[in-house]
Amino acid sequence: MLYWLSALSDGGDFFNLFRYITFRAGGAFMTALFFGFIFGPPLINVLRKHQGKGQPIRTDGPEAHVAKSGTPTMGGLLIVGALMVSTLFWARLDNPYVWLLLFVTLSFGLIGFADDYAKVSKQNVSGVPGKLRLALGFAISAVAAYWATLFHPEALQYQLALPVFKDTLINMGWFFLPFAMFVIVGAANAVNLTDGLDGLAIMPVMIASGTLGVIAYAVGRVDFTEYLDVHYVPGTGEILIFVAGLFGGGLGFLWYNAPPAAVFMGDTGSLALGGALGAIAVVTKHEIVLGIVGGLFVVEALSVIIQVLYFKRTGKRVFLMAPIHHHYEKKGWAEPQIVIRFWIIAVILAMIGLATLKVR
Q1: End-to-end alpha-carbon separation of the chain, Å?
Q2: N or C: which terminal CB in the chain sees fewer CB atoms within 10 Å?
Q3: Distance CA 192, CA 243 (A)
Q4: In angstroms, rounded to a whole number, what is the distance separating the alpha carbons of residues 173 and 105?
């Protein structure tokens, strides 16, 4: 919205700053951060007042989690709110990719909100049935996948770009749409599975989104794409503003989610942010790179899949408990130890993902 102030510029004054994506990204970051600091305490008080016993705790989970009983959930409202407000203020609202990301984030956030509400109101860890959540997620991602494809350059439509291999595209035809749907839904649910310890999910989400934001800015500039030999996707530079809002909102939330957490993100936040990561990857044609940058989420999701399949086949477990962060809790690792080590892994994977921009 504030981008339109650039129309008041004669080319050499303050208003000219609003033309620059980097300036507006900084504004989005600060807006989201202050939003979190200002609205965090009152939101937590409202959630605590109306949720009573807070988020239900799994009875079969690590014993240390019993002490977290009574902690309110739905803290993702703070992140999504900060993200939406900062993006609407600072991004160009004539950019279709901005609206696509807002649509995916808000829609998955609503699914998560319904799930959190069901858990809190019934004091049951089940929430909304998994099949219904998946069906809604795939419906949303179908719209997003077609939306992205519609605005991609004709040469990139229905194409899968491979990292490292220069100018390599795989024409998937209409199969690209279900593939893109899987990327978005998979990312949403992988982040959701990761959200099990204080601060565990939000920092890797911020790291992954920051990495994808840099990629989005690069592939949205023709001079950068020519230098890096990557595919040019006009308009993706505005995604950096969305990501800056996510980063600022994430930091604001982490202030209250740092151990011991005053509020949990809940599915409201994890599904929204995971869906956003998947959508950014689809828009920028970096779906495979998301698997590297978000490798931590992939491992968390795979640990659950492996555990379930192996248990159904043999009646035995591969891990002491899934997702894998609970396995390490059961092995005696302290919660801060797990969280910080997983953050380190997320940073390493982000650096590898960024390296694919130049390695050709």
Answers
A1: 38
A2: N
A3: 19
A4: 26
So where are the chain's domains?
23-355
Beta strands in the chain (DSSP E): 159-161, 169-171
The two tokens of residue 154 are: 């004709």
Residue with tokens 């040019």: 232
CA dihedral in degrees (276, 177, 156, 106; nearest 10)?
Answer: -20
Q: Phi and psi at residue 358, in whole multiples of 5°?
A: -105, -30
Task: Please count the residues of the chain.
Answer: 360
Separation of alpha carbons 75 and 256, rounded Å: 9
The pTM of the full predicted model, rounded to 2 decimals, is 0.94
| 360 residues of the chain, pLDDT tens digit each | 777 776 666 666 677 888 899 999 999 999 999 999 999 999 999 999 888 776 776 666 676 666 677 789 999 999 999 999 999 999 999 999 999 999 999 999 999 999 999 988 887 777 889 899 999 999 999 999 999 999 999 999 999 999 888 778 999 999 999 999 999 999 999 999 999 899 999 999 999 999 999 999 999 999 999 898 889 999 999 999 999 999 999 999 999 998 888 999 999 999 999 999 999 999 999 999 999 999 999 999 999 999 999 999 999 999 999 999 999 999 999 999 999 999 999 999 999 999 998 887
Amino acid identity, position 182: F
